[in-house]
Specification:
The protein is α/β, with parallel strands linked by helices and 482 residues long. The chain contains 17 helices and 11 strands. The protein binds adenosine-5'-triphosphate and magnesium ion (MG) (3 copies). It catalyses: tRNA(Ala) + L-alanine + ATP = L-alanyl-tRNA(Ala) + AMP + diphosphate.
Amino acid sequence: MQTHEIRKRFLDHFIRAGHTEVPSASLILDDPNLLFVNAGMVPFKPFFLGDQTPPYTRATSVQKCVRTLDIEEVGITTRHNTFFQMAGNFSFGDYFKREAIRFAWELLTNSVEDGGYGIDPTRLWPTVYLDDDEAESIWRDEIGVPSERIQRRGMADNYWSMGVPGPCGPCSEIFYDRGPEYGVEGGPEADEDRYIEIWNLVFMQNERGEGTSKDDYEILGPLPKKNIDTGMGIERVACLLQGVDNVYETDLLKPIIDLASRLTGREYGAGKHEDDVRFRVVADHARTAAMLIGDGVVPANDGRGYVLRRLLRRIVRSMRLLGSGTTGGGEATMERIIAEVIDVMSPSYPELEQQRAHILSVAVAEETTFARTLAAGSKLFSEAADATKRAGSTSISGSDAFTLHDTYGFPIDLTLEMAAEAGLEVDREGFSELMGEQRRRAKADASARKSSHADQSVYREFLDRGPTEFTGFDELVSEARV
Ligand code: ATP
Ligand code: MG
Ligand code: MG
Ligand code: MG
């Protein structure tokens, strides 16, 4: 089943159940705490917080989401995109757990003829929060999932709040068992690669008080009006329904991988893991970049524009490492890659087509600038390589590698690859030391402006994973010196 069809079936299912379809909001909302919209509920926040009264009690949407926090996972895990589409259904003081669980179950397991996704119910594993007997009993006694396939998980995985005083509550997540070839038995508690998370149902039933971290806040008591917020990952469902290995091989991303393969003359899936990761990075980042430019972001050295800049440069870098002119001027491939993204995405996002010329020109301009950077860096690289050889050494110094990175924005893996081509190594330890020093400086900088740049995904991630430190944006900041 194609992605566009998966979206449509989701919306139709919930419209039939009395929900109002709400179009996706822009990725950029006027919220000082939010870099990008990163969940379907974000545009509905004022309703959940009680600041505004919703014009409906049931809504459904497929929201564009960007999670910068997941950037390092891209291409490596099977399931993380920087841009993805989160389908959701929302109840504002209307239905609650029983209906939310039933709606989700029916869409997933109803036959294709009946408008569902036709997923084999024996593959589905729901989780519930530790003390949520109510949810467990609905899954077991009303839906009929055997109790051995229902797992209970703690705060870190199955309790949600927005990170601020306001609604909070237990979640129930739905995982799909991809089978023994993908990992060990034992449900999502044992292996989240084999059991892939597809849908998160949030039951907003309580009110939380002040407190900064996930485990450190008071639950003040039940909410007068209970709400439902759910999020289903369209790309993940596409991956399962299309029987492919990972989200990057689904119908909207694979054509970009195929194009990158034609442009570089290198094969995807030929057994070279590093290449495959690069292909997946190109496909993922190209799509995110096109969506961000479409929503008004332009490359810059900080904030949202820096995220875009980094995505575009990673595409250029990855394409070169895949063989598109590593040492010379490199071939310009951005235009064709972004054009392909627009072609595949515009049936769901017609605004991309309307803005085709603008999106292409922004992306290509960044490619050109970065190509110049690379050209300047290549000159310094050759000088450093020559000097290294003249000195009878086989290793480019850490400080040269650092200058290449810091002054010319030359990624270390490019330096390494070019060094290898020249029969040289790189003093990686020296390089890492200098990078560490710089990162500490950048961190000090970043913490000063953290309040204005905090990514909202911090909250979900905190809540889903426990009190881990958010380093994604700091890393971005530290690499911002180009
Ligand atoms: P994971 O644990 O796999 O990182 P999550 O718990 O962070 O996922 P939620 O915040 O619960 O995800 O988001 C709701 C749904 O959105 C998930 O169940 C998943 O289907 C989808 N989703 C989340 N992050 C991504 C991503 N980076 N790429 C694609 N889909 C995603
Ligand atoms: Mg989740
Ligand atoms: Mg996550
Ligand atoms: Mg999760």
